[in-house]
């Protein structure tokens, strides 16, 4: 390997000027790029006007210039040309280092600002908590549940279970999985319409007008429903109210159920049991399972907000069964007036009265 030391016909002042420009750029780069500090410091210590050609090549080797440009520099034997190219490389390196530094500063400022805001918010929360102006999330959730209980007419069994679960919730850490399971369970228990009933319309004439306005014809069906409502009003009890509508698809079974709800001025909820194969859809899942939920009937009461809605179990003739149980058998507890007074959902594990529900099947 042979190094080319070309003679150059340059004045000493011009050579010195190029060398000083290169040294100045190297020093500037030294401040901006900490990665290059050690090799650049060594180069500066050895920098001499007598060795300027060799040192230019060494400086170029430290830079991150394109290999093609670097080869072009090595192939330039003229001192002035090589020095100018090296100065261009150093200028590009300085611009890149400056850009990196600006980006780094922006990131640090953003992170610093976010950390500052986070600390200030946490301090503000603690100050408000100490002054009694704000409660922590756990206390706020407990109070929310307790406020719901004021408007509910709980059974003795439900009240006992809720108090036990509330006591358990207070002892649990808010970041534990059991805390969230217990809180969701209490949310469901306290969001159910315990003892909340909507007032029925006892005006048979008004009920007839509503049925006639919403359906043309079907006089035999309307008369049967009006007789049923009249008997229910005279008896003064809505227990065991079940109407079975039979007919092909599209004749108005579902819409007549909605009309009856309007006639009675009750909330209406419909869900299809066609193709249902899991009895947990009716009876609910046990709380030991992940993602456990109450059955469809309990869900309908929560959504309607009353304990005496009109519920239509649509497509009941298409209900199925599987290894997961027989939903048709589970419906017996829902439909039997002697059993639905104390319906037990697996998720709630607390008895709930279904005997005021008006059922269409």
Descriptive report:
With about 350 residues, the chain is mainly α. The protein has 3 domains: about 1-135, Up-down Bundle (Methane Monooxygenase Hydroxylase, Chain G, domain 1); about 135-190, no CATH class; about 205-360, Rossmann fold. The protein has helices at about 10-30, 35-45, 50-60, 65-75, 80-130, 135-150, 155-170, 175-190, 205-215, 220-235, 255-265, 280-285, 295-305, 325-335; strands spanning about 240-245, 270, 310-315, 345, 350, 360. A 4-stranded parallel sheet has the order 1-6-3-2, sandwiched between helices. A two-stranded antiparallel ribbon has the order 4-5. A hairpin with a 6-residue loop joins strand 4 (about 345) and strand 5 (about 350). The longest helix is centred in the first third of the chain and has 52 residues, at about 80-130. The model is unreliable at about 5-10 (pLDDT under 50).
CATH architecture title of the largest domain:
3-Layer(aba) Sandwich
Total helix count?
14
Distance between the termini: 98 Å
Quaternary structure: single chain
Q: Write down how many β-strands occur, each being a DSSP E stretch of 2 or more residues.
A: 6
Q: Residue-averaged pLDDT, rounded?
A: 77
Q: Would you list the SSEs in sequence order as H and E?
A: HHHHHHHHHHEHEHHEHEEE
The main sheet orders its strands as 1-6-3-2
The percent range for strand residues is 5-15%
Which CATH class of the largest domain applies here? Alpha Beta
- Largest sheet features: 4 strands, parallel
Low-confidence stretches: 7-11
Overall structural domain count = 3
Sheet/helix structural class: mainly alpha
Shape: elongated
């Amino acid at each position: 390997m042979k190094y080319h030391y070309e003679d150059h016909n340059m004045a000493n002042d011009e050579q010195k000027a190029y060398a000083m420009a290169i040294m100045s750029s190297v020093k500037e780069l030294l401040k901006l790029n900490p990665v290059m500090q050690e090799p650049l410091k060594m180069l500066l210590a050895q920098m001499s006007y007598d060795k300027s050609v060799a040192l230019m090549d060494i400086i170029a080797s430290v830079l991150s210039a394109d290999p093609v440009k670097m080869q072009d520099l090595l192939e330039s034997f003229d001192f002035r040309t090589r020095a100018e190219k090296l100065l261009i490389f150093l200028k590009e390196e300085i611009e890149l280092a400056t850009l990196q530094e600006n980006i780094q500063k922006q990131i640090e400022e953003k992170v610093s600002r976010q950390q500052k805001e986070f600390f200030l918010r946490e301090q503000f929360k603690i100050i408000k908590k100490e002054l009694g102006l704000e409660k922590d999330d756990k206390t706020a959730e407990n109070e929310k549940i307790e406020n719901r209980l004021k408007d509910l007419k709980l059974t003795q069994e439900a009240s006992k279970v809720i108090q036990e679960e509330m006591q358990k919730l207070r002892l649990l850490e808010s970041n534990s999985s059991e805390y969230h399971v217990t809180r969701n369970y209490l949310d469901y228990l306290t969001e159910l319409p315990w003892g909340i009933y909507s007032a029925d319309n006892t005006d048979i004439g008004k009920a007839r007008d509503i049925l006639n306005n919403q359906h043309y014809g079907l006089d035999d069906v309307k008369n049967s429903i009006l007789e049923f409502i009249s008997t229910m009003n005279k008896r003064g009890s809505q227990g065991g109210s079940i109407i079975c509508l039979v007919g092909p698809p599209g004749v108005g079974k579902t819409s007549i159920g909605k009309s009856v709800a309007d006639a009675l001025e009750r909330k209406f909820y419909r869900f299809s049991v066609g193709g249902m194969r899991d009895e947990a859809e009716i009876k609910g899942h046990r709380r030991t399972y992940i993602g456990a939920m109450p059955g469809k009937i309990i869900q309908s009461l929560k959504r309607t907000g009353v304990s005496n809605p009109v519920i239509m179990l649509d497509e009941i003739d298409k209900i199925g069964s599987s290894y997961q149980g027989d939903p048709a058998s589970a419906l017996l507890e829902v439909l039997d007036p002697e059993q639905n007074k104390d319906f037990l959902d697996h998720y709630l594990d607390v008895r709930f009265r279904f005997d005021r529900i008006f059922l269409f099947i």
